[in-house]
Amino acid sequence: MSTVAIAAALLAGTAAAQEPGSRQTRDYVQAAGESDTFEIMEAQSALAESKDPDVLAFARQMIHDHGETSRALRDATASAGLKPPPMAVSESQAPFLAALQSLRGQEFDRGYWRQQALSHRSALVTTQLYAATGDAPAVRQAAAAALPVIQSHLAMAEQMSAKLGG
Fold first, then answer.
1. H or E stretch including 64?
2. What is the C-alpha to C-alpha distance for residues 147 and 65, in angstroms, rounded to an integer?
3. Which of 40, 49, 91, 121 is exposed most, by the fewest CB atoms within 10 A?
4. In 3-state terms, what secondary structure has residue 33?
């Protein structure tokens, strides 16, 4: 390993060690922030594309609710002295968003419900784990408060996905 590579590795380790919060908390904050952003961006796509009143109502609810959970998480990270959650989708979410945005009509609606069920299942597992074992009390409280919202969204998305054959 070259001296430059060793120095870069040491600096990267030092920067990570100086970042506030545990790895668990930083990972949760990033995942929850990306999840909220993904839900909001998909909902905005639904408002632009769908004509289905159920999709439109759900999308408006997603924008409202995920805006609230985003604010609660930002407030929790600020009170804990942590970096705020990202306002971007993850690299793994970006293809799902792009695929949804390429759909039209009923295919869009089915795709939206399927993706909402999938993304809320993932968010539920991540949030349940942090709410149960997280080491930053303010962030853990925000995660616990988000659980009923995520559970409600998941139930609706699964119901609608099943109804449309998704």
1. helix 53-79
2. 12
3. 91
4. helix
Contacts of 42 (CB under 8 A, 6+ apart): 59, 62, 97, 100, 112, 115, 116, 119
The model's pTM? 0.85
Q: How far apart are CA 32 and CA 114, in angstroms?
A: 19
| DSSP 8-state symbol, 91 | T
- Using alpha carbons only, what angle is made at residue 34 by residues 92 and 14, rounded to the nearest 5 degrees? 90
Q: Which H or E element spans position 81?
A: none
Beta-carbon contacts of residue 67 (< 8 Å; ≥ 6 apart): 36, 40
Distance CA 4, CA 140 (A): 39
Q: Is 154 helix (H, G, I), strand (E, B) or coil?
A: helix
